[in-house]
UniProtKB/TrEMBL annotation:
Membrane topology field: Multi-pass membrane protein
Chain positions covered by the region annotation Disordered: 668-689
Keyword Iron tagged: no
Compositional bias annotation for Low complexity: 668-680
Main localisation: membrane
Keywords linked to the UniProt accession: Cytochrome c-type biogenesis, Membrane, Transmembrane, Transmembrane helix
Organism whose genome encodes this protein: Corticimicrobacter populi
Bilayer-crossing regions: 54-76, 148-166, 597-615
Domain of life of the organism encoding this protein: Bacteria
Subcellular location: Membrane
Domain called ResB-like: residue spans: 1-656
Name by which UniProt lists this protein: Cytochrome C biogenesis protein ResB
Family annotation (InterPro entries): Cyt_c_bgen_Ccs1/CcsB/ResB, ResB-like_domain
GO cellular-component term (any): membrane
């Protein structure tokens, strides 16, 4: 019993972990949540898929074996005890019971026996008698089915565990361990998978995944094993005709559904079905659930803007999400571009800090209702975005995330370009100010001009003319200072300026010098911006009013962005220009015969709990032995009674008290019944007759 309880406690704790902690997510998600150290610790216990871990399955197996042995050993004894009245008990044994009554009643034994039978019958007792000469033993019982509670409760544990094991990965793992099945570890098409990587169509139990782009058809699902994957054929095919997503007013998805055509190649039947969350498809013993959705290979057009050198114009890059292509670096070695994900909808709360692309599970939670806490007035849709990776020749990769449209932060529209070295970290965003046309053209022109010495020189000269009298004694020095400040800033941003000041200015004057240089850089960049606008055919910047204030904010943001370019881990940024979305639905496909077994086990558990708590077992033994009176015939009876139960609760003690009081009232009732039942003595005349 202690062993079984210990196993149950471990299983309960593991089940809590499996319920609270999301299962079968990406490695980066867990590293981001727990950190590398604790990830390695938890990974040894395989808590990311706790229900299919070896130790959990072993514990379940031990619990099944232990409880089964317990049932085999004890059920026959319990059944015999339920059927037994224990009518062979001796009078001496009854005197050892705590709850007993022993008394003499001045009434014949037959009348008392009749009275006892009537009372026991009204109380619901079944009675069996045993006679020894003139003495009689009445053995009564009720609530014997209480023992069924223990039997059904223990059987429920076995049945539920067997059903759970049948629906786990154990059947598939047994085919891997004992059969000729070998998971596929290489990247290949389904039709290229060898027979050793395919499971049988009649596989009794499985839980697989299927990603189906719009317009595609498949008859296979994928079962992920730790070291690879196996192909699970289905008894029918699915064609995804359309994937539909409905949204709330704030952009959160309210419903998504898959309109599919089911094709049974064996019978030729075809029918349409809508699969959505909590409304699966059930056909031929297979259940298809709407799990999530992915990109099915959308076509995208990107504009690549350089961040180094004097070129401002962007180049157009086309690609397909999920595919890779070579990308020539700006004066560097070629890079490989992996287009990871297209997100047409991005719902962000921009009051909490920098935005982060949502995990797919958060969208699913919104659909199923568990993300209600995210519904607040600060959430809004900020438009499409693209995620991609740039991988260099050494294999080092950085992940990037950029939004298609500018996002208003602190009252000004900016383009956000996020970067991170690994999925375990959050994106850190570069904020590039948008111009009046909500484009990057003016900022990119300013960046390119800053890297051209002749334009820096022209901007410094214009700044000097506007801020110093013509031919003044300090004009040349001011121009040289402005030109040197722009040159230093172009080579490393504000950090390079700070290093220059630290190396050339006394410590006591550094703070004042830094303030002067920053103002000098901002004013010189305004002059450089004026030059660019003239070259681009744009109107001059306003000098007064709200528009002038907006121009000053743009310049301030541009200074910060140009300084941050030195820390951006790429020589260019990619922004989404246009896309043609192709959706893909992700299904979970299961065959789970153990489900009905678990339901049966739950029924057993309900019956067992009800029987144990609401059916009370009682046993009563009553010995009646006639005793001869003074007149010769037996006119009194010796009564010995005992009452017992498996659990001597307060209810039991109250029932025994009522039983004892009934016996104490027995003598007068027996006498009355004897007088009513005995015939009158015949007269001598009647005797003669």
């Amino acid at each position: 019993m202690r062993f079984a309880v210990s196993l149950l406690v471990i299983i309960c704790i593991a089940s809590v972990v499996g319920t609270v902690l999301g299962q079968n997510q990406s490695q980066g998600t867990y590293i981001d949540r727990f950190g590398p150290f604790w990830y390695d610790v938890f990974d040894k216990f395989d808590i990311w898929q706790v229900y299919n871990s070896v130790w959990f399955l072993v514990i379940m197996g031990f619990l099944v074996v232990s409880t089964t042995i317990c049932l085999i050993r004890n059920v026959p004894k319990m059944v015999r005890d339920m059927r037994s009245f224990r009518e062979h008990v001796r009078a001496g044994s009854l005197r050892a019971f705590p709850q007993r009554v022993e008394q003499h009643i001045d009434a014949p034994a037959g009348a008392i026996e009749l009275r006892m039978r009537q009372w026991l019958g009204r109380q619901g007792y079944a009675i069996r008698e045993r006679r020894e000469g003139d003495a009689v033993l009445l053995a009564a019982r009720k609530g014997a089915s209480n023992r069924l509670g223990y039997i059904f409760a223990h059987a429920a544990i076995v049945v539920i565990c067997v059903g759970g094991l049948l629906d786990s990965e154990l059947p598939v793992r047994l085919q891997i361990w004992l059969g000729d099945k070998k998971p596929v570890v290489d990247n290949m098409l389904i039709r290229e998978v060898p027979e050793s990587g395919r499971l049988s169509l009649n596989n009794p139990s499985f839980r697989a995944n299927m990603m189906l782009p719009e317009g595609s058809i498949t008859q296979s699902a994928i079962i992920l094993a730790r070291e690879g994957a196996l192909v699970q054929p289905l008894p029918f095919s699915l064609r995804l005709d359309e994937f539909v997503v409905d949204y709330y007013s704030n952009g959160m998805p309210s419903r998504f559904a898959s309109k599919v055509e089911v094709i049974d190649w064996e019978t030729g039947d075809r029918f349409d079905q809508v699969i959505e969350v909590n409304e699966p498809l059930r056909y031929k013993g297979v259940t298809v659930y709407q799990s999530s959705f992915e990109d099915g290979g959308s076509s995208v057009r990107l504009m690549r803007y350089p961040l180094r050198g004097g070129q401002a114009e962007g180049t157009l890059v086309s690609g397909v999400v999920g595919e890779s292509q070579d990308l020539q670096g700006n004066g560097q070695a070629a890079l490989r571009l992996d287009l990871s994900a297209l997100r047409p909808i991005n719902v962000e709360d921009l009051t909490t800090g920098q935005p982060q692309p949502k995990e797919l599970g958060e969208h699913v939670a919104a659909v199923t209702g568990s993300a209600a806490g995210q519904s607040n007035s600060n959430l809004r849709n900020v438009g499409p975005s693209i995620e991609y990776q740039l991988i260099d020749a050494a294999g080092q990769a950085h992940q990037f995330h950029s939004y298609m449209a500018p996002i208003e932060l602190e009252g000004f529209p900016v383009f956000l370009f996020g970067a991170r070295p690994s999925p375990a970290e959050d994106f850190r965003y570069l904020q590039l100010p948008a111009d009046e046309n909500l484009s990057l053209d003016e900022f990119m022109a300013l960046r390119a001009s800053l890297n051209q010495p002749e334009l820096r020189r022209e901007a410094a000269a214009r700044f000097t003319r506007e801020n110093s009298p013509a031919g003044g004694p300090n004009a040349e020095a001011l121009q040289n200072s402005a030109e040197r400040a722009l040159e230093t800033f172009s080579n490393g941003g504000l950090q390079a300026v700070a290093q220059f000041i630290d190396g050339n200015v006394p410590e006591a004057e550094r703070e004042r010098a830094a303030s002067i240089v920053v103002r000098l850089i901002g004013a010189s960049l305004e002059s450089l911006r004026d030059i660019n606008r003239e070259r681009m055919g744009l109107a001059a910047l306003p000098q007064q009013g709200d528009e002038a204030l907006q121009a000053q904010i743009w310049t301030r943001l541009a200074v910060a962005a140009l300084s941050d370019l030195a820390f951006y881990p790429a020589d260019s940024v990619l922004t989404l220009v246009d896309f043609e979305q192709r959706k893909a639905s992700v299904f979970q496909v299961t065959r789970s015969p153990g489900k009905n077994i678990v339901y049966l086990g739950c029924l057993f558990l309900v019956i067992g709990v009800f029987a144990m708590f609401y059916i009370r077992d009682r046993r009563i033994w009553i010995w009646l032995k006639p005793e001869p009176g003074a007149d010769g015939p037996a006119a009194s009876t010796s009564l010995l009674a005992a009452m017992t139960s498996q659990k001597r609760t307060l209810d039991f003690l109250r029932e025994f008290s009522q039983f004892r009081q009934m016996l104490e009232r027995m003598a007068p009732a027996a006498d009355d019944q004897t007088q009513q039942a005995a015939p009158a003595a015949p007269s001598p005349t009647e005797k003669t007759s």
